């Protein structure tokens, strides 16, 4: 399995500085719902400290954690793709501090700085590919576990 990349460290220093100039510091207390699946995705975060659970609603009463994010991790990618709606929900598993980015501002910056745009989209794609690979591995483990217990 490939190593997870961190969005800000993946950017060359000049582009990282331009992007982080748009960041604002935010914090979320433990157990705070940061966003819900289906809501408008108009921002994203880079976690500075704490832990965030990405969740999928199975039933109205049950959510399943599909990924856990920590320091340096990108939280939110749906702002990049129409229809700009969150695919998952997110909840602060512990107190969280993060850099928050307004999607419209970042997209404007990417239009001004094509190199930043390409590196940012490529980095987000690599992060998503890694998360998909991790999820695939977990699903295969679950399948093997359940298949083995049925024999």
Automatic annotation (TrEMBL):
SUPFAM superfamilies linked to this entry: cAMP-binding domain-like (SSF51206)
Family matches, as SMART domains: cNMP
Coiled coil, from the record: none
Record-linked PROSITE patterns: CNMP_BINDING_3 (PS50042)
Pfam family, one: cNMP_binding
Annotated Gene3D superfamilies: Jelly Rolls
Signal peptide start and end residues: none
Cyclic nucleotide-binding domain mapped to chain residues: 7-76
CDD domains linked to this entry: CAP_ED
Name of the protein in question: Cyclic nucleotide-binding domain-containing protein
Organism of this sequence: Streptomyces ziwulingensis
